[in-house]
Protein backbone atom coordinates (compact mmCIF):
# COMPACT_ATOMS: atom_id res chain seq x y z
CA UNK A 1 0.00 0.00 0.00
CA UNK A 2 0.98 3.60 -0.51
CA UNK A 3 -0.64 6.51 1.32
CA UNK A 4 0.34 10.17 1.07
CA UNK A 5 -1.03 13.24 2.81
CA UNK A 6 0.00 16.77 1.90
CA UNK A 7 3.22 15.59 0.31
CA UNK A 8 5.58 18.33 -0.93
CA UNK A 9 9.11 18.44 -2.21
CA UNK A 10 11.36 21.44 -2.72
CA UNK A 11 14.39 20.94 -4.94
CA UNK A 12 17.32 22.89 -3.45
CA UNK A 13 17.80 24.79 -6.72
CA UNK A 14 14.50 24.07 -8.40
CA UNK A 15 10.74 24.08 -8.13
CA UNK A 16 8.53 23.29 -5.15
CA UNK A 17 6.22 20.41 -6.02
CA UNK A 18 2.92 19.73 -4.22
CA UNK A 19 1.24 16.37 -4.71
CA UNK A 20 -2.41 15.36 -4.44
CA UNK A 21 -3.11 12.75 -1.75
CA UNK A 22 -3.25 9.12 -2.82
CA UNK A 23 -4.33 5.95 -1.03
CA UNK A 24 -3.38 2.83 -2.98
CA UNK A 25 -4.40 -0.48 -1.35
CA UNK A 26 -1.95 -3.38 -1.24
CA UNK A 27 -1.96 -5.22 -4.56
CA UNK A 28 -3.62 -2.42 -6.53
CA UNK A 29 -2.17 -0.73 -9.63
CA UNK A 30 -1.76 3.03 -9.93
CA UNK A 31 -1.06 4.75 -13.23
CA UNK A 32 0.68 8.04 -12.50
CA UNK A 33 0.09 10.40 -15.41
CA UNK A 34 1.28 13.86 -16.25
CA UNK A 35 3.33 15.80 -18.73
CA UNK A 36 7.09 15.76 -18.77
CA UNK A 37 8.31 17.83 -15.82
CA UNK A 38 5.09 17.46 -13.81
CA UNK A 39 6.80 15.55 -10.99
CA UNK A 40 6.24 11.85 -11.67
CA UNK A 41 9.87 10.78 -11.18
CA UNK A 42 10.13 12.97 -8.09
CA UNK A 43 7.06 11.31 -6.59
CA UNK A 44 8.54 7.86 -7.26
CA UNK A 45 11.82 8.94 -5.60
CA UNK A 46 9.88 10.09 -2.52
CA UNK A 47 7.99 6.79 -2.32
CA UNK A 48 11.29 4.90 -2.71
CA UNK A 49 12.89 6.95 0.05
CA UNK A 50 15.53 8.27 -2.36
CA UNK A 51 14.35 11.81 -1.59
CA UNK A 52 12.85 13.04 1.68
CA UNK A 53 9.66 15.09 1.53
CA UNK A 54 9.89 18.66 2.79
CA UNK A 55 6.32 18.40 4.11
CA UNK A 56 3.55 15.87 4.49
CA UNK A 57 3.14 12.25 5.48
CA UNK A 58 4.04 9.16 3.47
CA UNK A 59 3.41 5.51 4.29
CA UNK A 60 4.76 2.78 2.01
CA UNK A 61 4.08 -0.86 2.89
CA UNK A 62 3.64 0.02 6.60
CA UNK A 63 6.84 2.08 6.86
CA UNK A 64 7.53 5.82 6.80
CA UNK A 65 10.67 5.89 4.64
CA UNK A 66 11.38 9.55 5.53
CA UNK A 67 11.54 8.65 9.24
CA UNK A 68 14.23 5.98 8.76
CA UNK A 69 17.96 6.72 9.11
CA UNK A 70 19.98 6.29 5.92
CA UNK A 71 21.24 2.73 6.48
CA UNK A 72 17.85 1.47 7.68
CA UNK A 73 16.21 3.18 4.76
CA UNK A 74 18.56 1.55 2.25
CA UNK A 75 17.91 -1.88 3.79
CA UNK A 76 14.16 -1.24 3.83
CA UNK A 77 14.21 -0.17 0.16
CA UNK A 78 16.20 -3.22 -0.91
CA UNK A 79 13.79 -5.61 0.80
CA UNK A 80 10.49 -3.87 0.14
CA UNK A 81 10.67 -2.18 -3.24
CA UNK A 82 11.25 -3.26 -6.78
CA UNK A 83 12.32 -0.35 -8.95
CA UNK A 84 12.27 -0.36 -12.75
CA UNK A 85 14.01 2.94 -13.48
CA UNK A 86 13.73 4.82 -16.77
CA UNK A 87 17.45 4.30 -17.33
CA UNK A 88 17.87 0.65 -16.44
CA UNK A 89 21.26 0.96 -14.67
CA UNK A 90 22.53 -2.50 -15.54
CA UNK A 91 26.29 -2.71 -15.01
CA UNK A 92 28.18 -3.77 -18.11
CA UNK A 93 31.15 -4.84 -15.95
CA UNK A 94 28.94 -7.73 -14.83
CA UNK A 95 26.94 -10.48 -16.50
CA UNK A 96 23.16 -10.43 -16.42
CA UNK A 97 23.13 -12.99 -13.58
CA UNK A 98 25.73 -11.02 -11.60
CA UNK A 99 23.62 -7.88 -11.99
CA UNK A 100 20.80 -9.74 -10.28
CA UNK A 101 23.15 -11.00 -7.56
CA UNK A 102 23.71 -7.35 -6.57
CA UNK A 103 20.14 -7.28 -5.26
CA UNK A 104 21.15 -9.69 -2.49
CA UNK A 105 24.22 -7.66 -1.55
CA UNK A 106 22.10 -4.52 -1.29
CA UNK A 107 19.60 -6.32 0.95
CA UNK A 108 22.28 -7.94 3.11
CA UNK A 109 21.12 -11.42 2.10
CA UNK A 110 23.05 -14.45 0.80
CA UNK A 111 22.93 -14.84 -2.99
CA UNK A 112 20.32 -17.37 -4.11
CA UNK A 113 21.51 -18.53 -7.54
CA UNK A 114 18.45 -20.74 -8.04
CA UNK A 115 16.12 -17.80 -7.43
CA UNK A 116 18.10 -15.69 -9.91
CA UNK A 117 17.76 -18.39 -12.56
CA UNK A 118 14.06 -18.73 -11.79
CA UNK A 119 13.44 -14.96 -12.03
CA UNK A 120 15.20 -14.82 -15.41
CA UNK A 121 13.26 -17.85 -16.63
CA UNK A 122 9.94 -16.32 -15.56
CA UNK A 123 10.65 -13.40 -17.89
CA UNK A 124 11.93 -15.65 -20.67
CA UNK A 125 15.55 -14.45 -20.51
CA UNK A 126 17.20 -17.42 -18.76
CA UNK A 127 19.42 -18.03 -21.79
CA UNK A 128 20.90 -14.54 -21.46
CA UNK A 129 22.29 -15.05 -17.93
CA UNK A 130 25.95 -15.12 -19.00
CA UNK A 131 25.76 -12.14 -21.37
CA UNK A 132 26.77 -8.56 -20.68
CA UNK A 133 23.90 -6.04 -20.70
CA UNK A 134 25.37 -4.30 -23.77
CA UNK A 135 24.80 -7.55 -25.69
CA UNK A 136 21.03 -7.38 -25.16
CA UNK A 137 18.27 -5.74 -27.20
CA UNK A 138 16.30 -2.95 -25.53
CA UNK A 139 13.38 -5.27 -24.82
CA UNK A 140 15.64 -7.98 -23.42
CA UNK A 141 17.42 -5.49 -21.17
CA UNK A 142 14.07 -4.32 -19.85
CA UNK A 143 13.04 -7.89 -19.04
CA UNK A 144 16.30 -8.39 -17.19
CA UNK A 145 15.72 -5.17 -15.24
CA UNK A 146 12.20 -6.35 -14.40
CA UNK A 147 13.53 -9.72 -13.25
CA UNK A 148 15.92 -7.81 -11.00
CA UNK A 149 13.09 -5.62 -9.68
CA UNK A 150 10.91 -8.58 -8.65
CA UNK A 151 13.68 -10.92 -7.46
CA UNK A 152 12.93 -10.46 -3.73
CA UNK A 153 9.16 -10.47 -4.25
CA UNK A 154 8.74 -6.82 -3.28
CA UNK A 155 5.61 -5.36 -1.65
CA UNK A 156 5.75 -2.40 -4.03
CA UNK A 157 6.93 -2.17 -7.65
CA UNK A 158 7.71 1.25 -9.15
CA UNK A 159 8.17 1.61 -12.92
CA UNK A 160 9.26 4.91 -14.48
CA UNK A 161 8.17 5.34 -18.12
CA UNK A 162 8.43 1.60 -18.86
CA UNK A 163 7.05 1.94 -22.38
CA UNK A 164 8.93 5.09 -23.43
CA UNK A 165 11.10 3.63 -26.17
CA UNK A 166 8.94 0.64 -27.18
CA UNK A 167 6.74 0.03 -30.21
CA UNK A 168 3.05 -0.79 -29.64
CA UNK A 169 3.46 -4.55 -29.40
CA UNK A 170 6.49 -4.34 -27.09
CA UNK A 171 4.80 -1.70 -24.93
CA UNK A 172 1.74 -3.91 -24.45
CA UNK A 173 3.99 -6.89 -23.66
CA UNK A 174 6.02 -4.87 -21.14
CA UNK A 175 2.84 -3.77 -19.34
CA UNK A 176 1.52 -7.32 -19.23
CA UNK A 177 4.83 -8.51 -17.77
CA UNK A 178 4.76 -5.77 -15.15
CA UNK A 179 1.16 -6.47 -14.20
CA UNK A 180 1.76 -10.22 -14.14
CA UNK A 181 4.88 -9.89 -12.00
CA UNK A 182 3.07 -7.61 -9.56
CA UNK A 183 0.16 -10.03 -9.33
CA UNK A 184 2.49 -12.94 -8.58
CA UNK A 185 4.13 -10.99 -5.73
CA UNK A 186 0.85 -9.48 -4.49
CA UNK A 187 2.70 -6.21 -4.96
CA UNK A 188 1.30 -2.74 -5.30
CA UNK A 189 2.30 -1.49 -8.77
CA UNK A 190 2.92 2.12 -9.79
CA UNK A 191 3.53 2.99 -13.43
CA UNK A 192 4.62 6.57 -14.08
CA UNK A 193 3.99 7.48 -17.69
CA UNK A 194 3.06 10.17 -20.17
CA UNK A 195 2.26 7.43 -22.71
CA UNK A 196 -1.42 7.42 -23.69
CA UNK A 197 -1.16 3.74 -24.67
CA UNK A 198 -0.83 2.81 -20.98
CA UNK A 199 -4.22 2.11 -19.51
CA UNK A 200 -5.83 0.25 -22.37
CA UNK A 201 -4.00 -2.88 -21.26
CA UNK A 202 -4.41 -2.31 -17.50
CA UNK A 203 -8.04 -2.95 -16.62
CA UNK A 204 -9.03 -1.82 -13.15
CA UNK A 205 -6.00 0.38 -12.53
CA UNK A 206 -6.34 3.53 -10.41
CA UNK A 207 -5.20 6.76 -12.02
CA UNK A 208 -3.62 9.88 -10.60
CA UNK A 209 -2.78 12.86 -12.77
CA UNK A 210 0.14 15.01 -11.64
CA UNK A 211 -0.39 18.72 -11.36
CA UNK A 212 -3.84 18.29 -9.82
CA UNK A 213 -2.78 19.17 -6.25
P1 LIG B 1 8.55 14.03 -14.65
O1 LIG B 1 9.12 12.73 -14.19
O2 LIG B 1 7.05 14.08 -14.56
O3 LIG B 1 9.02 14.40 -16.01
P2 LIG B 1 10.31 15.20 -12.65
O4 LIG B 1 9.88 14.68 -11.34
O5 LIG B 1 11.51 14.63 -13.27
O6 LIG B 1 9.06 15.18 -13.66
O7 LIG B 1 10.57 16.79 -12.51
C1 LIG B 1 9.63 17.64 -11.85
C2 LIG B 1 10.19 19.05 -11.81
O8 LIG B 1 11.35 19.08 -10.96
C3 LIG B 1 10.65 19.60 -13.15
O9 LIG B 1 10.37 20.96 -13.19
C4 LIG B 1 12.14 19.34 -13.13
O10 LIG B 1 12.81 20.28 -13.93
C5 LIG B 1 12.48 19.55 -11.66
N1 LIG B 1 13.65 18.75 -11.24
C6 LIG B 1 13.82 17.41 -11.38
N2 LIG B 1 14.99 17.00 -10.87
C7 LIG B 1 15.60 18.12 -10.38
C8 LIG B 1 16.84 18.38 -9.71
N3 LIG B 1 17.70 17.39 -9.43
N4 LIG B 1 17.13 19.67 -9.36
C9 LIG B 1 16.25 20.67 -9.63
N5 LIG B 1 15.06 20.49 -10.23
C10 LIG B 1 14.73 19.24 -10.62
MG1 LIG C 1 10.23 11.32 -15.22
Write the layout of secondary structure elements.
Blueprint: E1 2-10, E2 16-18, E3 23-24, E4 29-33, H1 40-47, E5 55-60, H2 70-80, E6 81-84, H3 96-107, H4 113-122, H5 138-150, E7 156-160, H6 168-185, E8 188-193, E9 206-209
Parallel strand pairs: 4-8, 4-9, 6-7, 7-8
Antiparallel strand pairs: 1-2, 1-3, 1-5
Helix pairs in contact: 2-3, 3-5, 4-5, 5-6
Adenosine-5'-diphosphate is lined by residues 11, 13-15, 34, 36-42.
**Small molecules in complex:** adenosine-5'-diphosphate, magnesium ion
Q: What is the annotated CATH architecture?
A: 3-Layer(aba) Sandwich
Beta-strand content estimate: 15-25%
Strand numbers in spatial order across the main sheet: 6-7-8-4-9
Quick one: CATH superfamily?
Answer: P-loop containing nucleotide triphosphate hydrolases
Largest sheet: 5 strands, parallel
**Mean of pLDDT:** 94
Low-confidence stretches: none
User: Helical stretch count?
Assistant: 6
Amino acid sequence: MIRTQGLRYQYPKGPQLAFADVDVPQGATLVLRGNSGSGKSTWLALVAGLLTATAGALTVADAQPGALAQAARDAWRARTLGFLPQKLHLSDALTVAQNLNLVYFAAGLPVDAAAVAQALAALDVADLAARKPSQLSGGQAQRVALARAVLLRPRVILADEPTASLDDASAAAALQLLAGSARQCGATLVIATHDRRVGETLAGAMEYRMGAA
